[in-house]
Specification:
Helices cover about 40% and strands about 15% of the residues. By secondary structure, the chain is α+β, with helices and mostly antiparallel strands. α11 packs antiparallel against α15. The two termini are about 60 Å apart.
Length: about 750
C-alpha cells in the first residue's frame, strides 16, 4: 500500500473509494478515481474543508475519510462539528499561547471581568462562549486565563496548562466579597447525599464535576457545558420517556443483537435514542429529519448536536449488512413477554400490503383498496388481546397470510418457551383473508391444537334464512375507544367444504340490520366470549391506522435490491399470446354459432336438416369452419412451447429481484417499541385525565410542548412550558409528578437524576 501503481500515481490502492494524492506541492482528493478537490499541500484549512464537504455529501464514510487523509476518525468528527458551529473559521488552525495583543486591550479585559463578576460565569469555556454570543469576539482560553491571573481572580501558576475547571479558589472568592454559585464539583457530595438519590449505586455517574472532565472528549465537554448553561429545546418533552425506556431495557435489547458500538463519532446508544425520538416526534422519513433543530435534539441523546441525515443513512446501511433484523424482532418479542407488556393467550394476526412505486422489478401482490395486483411487500403483524405488538414479518408480496399464520404461531410458541411461558393454550383471531379449510386443518393438527376464530365467507347466502326469534343470546362488546355495543347471536353448526362440521355463531347488531357469522374450532369457550374476541378486532384496525399515520409503519428507509438465487417460473409469454389469440377467435366463432342457431330456429317449420342448412348458408358455415381450423392450429402450436419459463427468459433477460428489508426491520422494531411506550405513558396519564378518547391528544400536546433543560446541583431539570388550558396544565403537572416518583435518570453515560416540572 502506498506504492506507485502502473500509472505512477503515489498512494494509489486498488479498491479504495477515496484517494488523497500529492504531486508538485498540490494535494488532490479522488473519489472512485475521479478528481473532486485540490489544494496547496501547506493549506491545512483547505484540507479540513475537503473532509467536511466529502462527509456532508455522503460520498464516503468518516472511517474512509480518516484513513484517506491520514487523521484519526475523531479528528474528522471534530472538523465536521467545528464547521457546523463556526463555518470555515472553525477549521482554521490555532496557535498555542496568547492571541493577538488587541484582545487584551482594556476594553477586552473589561468585558471578561464583567462576565465573571456580573454574570458569575466561572469556567473558561463559558466565558469564551459568552464573549462570542454577546460581542461576537473570538478570544482564546489562554487569553482569558491571562486576564484573570493578572486580575488576581485565580491562583494557579501561569506556566500550567489551563483546565476546564473552577477558575477561582475559595480564598479569592471570599476576598472579592461576591456570592458565587458553587460549581458542580463543590456540590458533588451534597448532591449524592440528597434524600432522593441513590448514593450507593456503583453504576451511576450521576455527578461529573468540572475538575473531573480530563477524561471527556471535546464533544462530551461541549455537551456538559451546554447542559450547565441551560438550553431551550423543542424536544424537551422527550425526556419524559426516560424512565420507561430504561425500565423496559430498550437500549440493552439492541446492544445485545447489533454489534456496532460506535459509528462516525456516535455510540450505538445515541443512535438508538435518536431513532426512538425520531418516531416520537413523528419525523416522516430520514430526509424529513433535515428539519430538526440539531442542538435541541442532541441533548435528548446525550450529545451537543444530533447526527446528520447522512450519518443516519450510513448507520442504517451498516446495520443492514449485519442481517440481524429477524433476531432483533425476536429479542423485542421476548422482552415484551418477560416484562408483561404482551400477554400470552389470544393473538390477532393480520396482513398489510405496502405498495412499491419504484423502478425495480419485484413481485406483485393484491392491493385491497386499489383492487388490483401491484408491486409491493407484505407486513404480517401479531398483537395480543390488548393490541400490543408482539411479532411481525416483512415478506415479498408473493407470500400470503395463509402461509404466514402457522409460521408466526410456531415462532411465538418457541419464543414463549424460551422465556418460560406455558404456550399450550393459544387462540388466534384473523379476518376473512384467513378463511381456508386447509389453514383450519393445519391449526387443528398442531401440537397442541391452536384455536382459531374468524369471520365466515359467503355468509350472505344463508345468514338471512334464520328467523329473528332464533337470536336468543346477547353480549355487550367492549371496544378500546368506541362505546359499548350490544350484539345478539345464536349458535349452530355448519358443514364446511373440505373441512367438515364447524362451530358457527350467527350475529346481529342490535338496532341495525347487519348479520355476520363466526367460525371457530373452540368448542369449550362461552359463545359470548367468542363474539367479544371477533368483534373487538375493530381495535386492531384502529391500531393499524395509528401505526400507519402516527408511526409511519409504511415507510421504507431506502430501497435496496437483492438478486434472487433462482428466478421463479412464470407463464410462458408466447403461450399467453397464443391463448389470447385463441380466445379472440373463439369469441368470433361463438358469435357465428349463435347466428347460425338463430337462422336454424327460423327454418324449423321448413324441416331443413343440417346438410340443407349448410347448403343454404355456405358463407356463414365456411367462416365457422375456417375459425375452427385456426383454433385447432393454435392448439397444436401451443403444445410446442413449455407452459412456464424462468422470469428472466420471459422478460428479455430482465431479472426479478427482492427488496432487502433489514433497515426497515430495525426501524420497525423501534417504532413498535415507541408505540408501546406511548401506551404506557397514556396509562400513567389516565390516572390524572379522565377523558380516554382524548388521552393520546393530551399526551402529544405535553410531549411536544418544549421547555428548558438545565443541569444544576448534579441534577438535570426539565421544565416544560405551561399550558393556558387549566385541564391540560393540571394533567401535565401531575404527569411530571408521577414520573418523578420513578426516580428517572438521563440515558447518557453520566446518569444524571432528572426532575420534571411545568412552568
Amino acid at each position: 500500500m502506498g506504492e506507485e501503481n502502473s500509472d505512477g500515481i503515489a498512494g494509489w490502492e486498488f479498491g479504495k473509494v477515496l484517494h488523497v494524492v500529492e504531486a508538485e506541492g498540490i494535494k488532490r482528493a479522488l473519489v472512485n478515481g475521479r478528481p473532486y478537490m485540490s489544494w496547496e499541500a501547506w493549506d491545512v484549512t483547505a484540507e479540513r474543508m475537503a473532509i467536511v464537504q466529502l462527509n456532508e455529501l455522503g460520498m464516503v464514510t468518516q472511517e474512509e475519510l480518516a484513513k484517506g487523509f491520514g487523521v484519526h476518525v475523531n479528528s474528522a468528527t471534530n472538523y465536521v462539528a467545528a464547521f457546523k458551529a463556526n463555518g470555515s473559521n472553525g477549521l482554521k488552525s490555532e496557535q498555542r499561547g496568547p492571541k493577538q495583543s488587541w484582545k487584551l486591550v482594556p476594553e477586552m479585559r473589561g468585558k471578561i471581568l464583567w462576565i465573571v463578576l456580573r454574570d458569575r460565569i466561572r469556567e473558561y469555556s463559558g466565558i469564551q462562549e459568552r464573549l462570542k454570543e454577546q460581542w461576537k469576539e473570538e478570544v482564546s482560553i489562554e487569553s482569558i486565563r491571562q486576564v484573570l491571573l493578572e486580575s488576581g481572580l485565580v491562583d494557579e501558576n501561569i506556566g500550567t496548562q489551563p483546565k476546564q475547571g473552577n477558575l477561582f479558589g475559595e480564598k479569592n472568592v471570599e476576598a472579592l466579597g461576591l456570592k458565587f454559585e458553587w460549581g458542580l464539583a463543590e456540590r458533588e457530595s451534597s448532591a449524592i447525599e440528597d434524600k432522593g438519590e441513590r448514593a450507593g449505586d456503583s453504576k451511576s455517574e450521576s455527578v461529573v464535576g468540572k475538575r473531573n472532565r480530563s477524561h471527556c472528549g471535546q464533544a462530551e465537554r461541549v455537551y456538559l457545558d451546554q447542559l450547565e448553561r441551560g438550553i431551550f429545546s423543542a424536544y424537551a418533552g422527550g425526556f419524559l420517556f426516560a424512565p420507561l425506556i430504561e425500565r423496559h431495557h430498550f437500549i440493552e435489547m439492541i446492544e445485545k443483537v447489533i454489534g456496532v458500538p460506535t459509528h462516525e463519532g456516535y455510540s450505538l446508544r445515541q443512535f438508538c435514542l435518536a431513532f426512538f425520538y425520531f418516531d416520537i416526534f413523528e419525523f416522516r422519513s430520514i430526509e424529513d429529519f433535515k428539519t430538526v433543530y440539531p442542538e435541541e435534539y442532541g441533548v435528548l441523546i446525550g450529545r451537543s448536536v444530533s447526527p446528520s441525515i447522512y450519518t443516519l443513512r450510513r448507520f442504517l446501511h451498516r446495520v443492514r449488512k449485519l442481517k440481524k433484523g429477524d433476531t432483533l424482532i425476536e429479542e423485542f418479542a421476548k422482552e415484551y413477554l418477560k416484562s408483561g407488556l404482551v400477554q400470552w393467550g389470544v393473538f390477532y394476526i393480520d396482513g398489510h400490503f405496502w405498495p412499491y412505486y419504484g423502478m425495480l422489478v419485484i413481485t406483485r401482490g393484491w392491493h385491497g383498496v386499489q383492487e388490483k395486483a401491484i408491486k409491493g411487500s407484505y407486513q404480517f403483524l401479531a398483537v395480543d388481546e390488548r393490541f400490543n405488538p408482539f411479532l411481525f414479518l416483512l415478506t415479498p408480496s408473493s407470500e400470503d397470510l395463509l402461509e404466514k399464520i402457522p409460521e408466526m404461531i410456531e415462532a411465538g410458541r418457541r419464543l414463549g418457551r424460551e422465556v418460560g411461558i406455558k404456550v399450550e393454550d393459544m387462540t388466534v383471531v384473523f379476518d376473512r383473508e384467513g378463511y381456508s379449510a386447509e389453514l383450519f386443518r393445519k391449526l387443528d393438527a398442531m401440537a397442541p391444537k391452536v384455536k382459531f376464530v374468524t369471520w365466515a365467507k359467503y355468509k350472505d347466502r344463508w345468514v338471512w334464512d334464520y328467523k329473528e326469534e332464533q337470536f336468543d343470546k346477547s353480549v355487550m362488546v367492549q371496544y378500546e375507544i368506541r362505546e359499548k355495543r350490544e350484539i345478539k347471536y345464536f349458535e349452530t353448526e355448519r358443514e364446511m367444504n373440505k373441512y367438515g362440521k364447524v362451530r358457527c355463531l350467527v350475529t346481529e347488531r342490535v338496532g341495525m340490520k347487519e348479520r355476520g357469522a363466526i367460525y371457530t374450532n373452540d368448542k369449550d369457550t362461552d359463545g359470548g366470549r367468542i363474539v367479544q374476541l371477533m368483534c373487538r378486532r375493530w381495535g386492531q384496525e384502529t391500531m393499524n391506522k395509528t401505526f400507519k399515520w402516527d408511526h409511519k409503519m409504511d415507510y421504507f428507509p431506502g430501497y435496496v435490491a437483492e438478486d434472487l438465487e433462482e428466478q421463479p417460473l412464470v407463464d410462458n409469454p408466447r403461450v399467453k399470446e397464443l391463448k389470447r389469440e385463441r380466445a379472440s377467435l373463439t369469441a368470433k366463432l361463438n358469435g357465428l354459432r349463435i347466428q347460425f342457431a338463430q337462422k336454424a330456429f327460423a327454418q324449423v317449420e321448413a324441416g331443413l336438416n343440417m346438410k340443407e342448412m349448410k347448403e343454404k348458408y355456405p358463407e356463414l358455415c365456411g367462416e365457422m369452419d375456417s375459425l375452427h381450423a385456426q383454433i385447432t392450429l393454435l392448439n397444436l402450436e401451443m403444445e410446442k412451447f413449455p407452459k412456464e419459463v424462468r422470469f428472466d427468459e420471459a422478460h428479455d433477460g430482465k431479472q426479478l429481484v427482492e427488496l432487502d428489508y433489514e433497515k426497515k426491520r430495525f426501524m420497525d422494531c423501534i417504532k413498535a417499541f415507541a408505540y408501546m411506550m406511548e401506551k404506557k405513558m397514556c396509562s400513567v396519564l389516565s390516572k390524572i385525565y379522565d377523558d380516554q378518547k382524548d388521552i393520546y391528544v393530551i399526551l402529544s400536546m405535553i410531549v411536544r410542548r418544549g421547555g428548558e433543560i438545565k443541569l444544576e446541583n448534579g441534577r438535570l431539570g426539565v421544565r416544560l412550558k405551561g399550558f393556558r388550558n387549566p385541564g391540560v396544565n393540571f394533567a401535565a403537572r401531575h404527569l411530571c409528578e408521577e414520573l418523578n416518583q420513578m426516580r428517572p435518570r438521563t440515558l447518557d453515560k453520566y446518569r444524571f437524576p432528572i426532575r420534571y416540572e411545568v412552568a
